[in-house]
Specification:
globular, Short chain dehydrogenase/reductase family 42E, member 1, NAD, disordered N terminus, 2 domains, 388 residues, 3Beta_OHSteriod_DH/Estase, oxidoreductase activity, acting on the CH-OH group of donors, NAD or NADP as acceptor, transmembrane
Amino acid sequence: MVRPGSAHRALSRRLQLLLAHALNQKGVHVILFDVHSPAQTLPEGVRFMAGDIRCLSDLEKAFQDAHIACVFHIASYGMSGREQLNRRRIEEVNVGGTENILRVCRRTGVPRLVYTSTFNVVFGGQVIRNGDESLPYLPLHLYPDHYSRTKSIAEKKVLEANGMALEGGQGVLRTCAVRPAGIYGPGEQRHLPRIVSYLERGLFKFVYGDPKSLVEFVHVDNLVQAHILASEALKADKGHVASGQPYFISDGKPVNNFEFFRPLVEGLGYPFPSIRLPLTLIYCFAFLTEIAHFLLGRLYNFQPFLTCAEVYKTGVTHYCSLEKAKKELGYEAQPFDLQEAVEWFKARGHGRSREGRTSVLVVWDVVLGLLLALLVFTWLQPSAILSL
């Protein structure tokens, strides 16, 4: 088996390695395909090949002289932060890379392909409660970010490729898509480190949105389980039940986004914010941040505090049913929490020191307070004018 990976998303690499280890323990020979070699030593039976999914010749070399039973396409780009604003790279990786993988699978006779998609292919800022896989894709212009837009395009391409004839009369390609919620777990290199960095810089001073809003998360071990089950459900002995199908995958526990991270915040010794701001105010702040990045990004490619899409994804209710994954894949989410992540960060020197706040954090408090005050004044001014 081969899983075309990409260093464009560190979270993908974490999932990639855990999936490789899980398959290896089942006696499966694994090829890891990525632009950077893994930092850790790979076990016997797991082989690494360097390459980029945007380069068709790189993929062809990885597939050459290998009898591949299943491809796990995990790579993507632009999920969060400043990467969300790089539209060209997002298009190249998410759409172009997927087209390359489909092309090589058909040429080399790969019978199964599992695509790592996202909840966001059906979410554009609207409220979703217990949604299922019958939810339609959004019109492309309604997606709030290019990542979600291109992931929907790529997922459709993968599912439409299901049943296509493989070259050389080797049967047909069977495909399915796994749609994970927000991914977490020890060693995850996208969401949790960013939150911890905000804590350490004294920037996590408020929460926003309705406290009753609910979103979902998935522990990386549950996601690994879902990928393996999906690949098995594409086989003939399972009746090809997953062929052409998408599956929502999460821990099955809708929770307020900020309450989910409370154990991490308090576990590292920081006070949980008591200030709650309106969602529309934070969206305006994110919009201004994106404008600033557009104007200044070429001179200084700074990390936005929040993007508009991130405000929607963290502050608007959207969670989905696991019934289809349970029934067709046999998926059962195992219980996890953030305690293992807390211990992981503590072991690497993170957490609030006993000495208390430093002068640097006090300065950050003042600067952040002034920015928020200015933003609140700007936000409130139109309604004040209307009342005159």
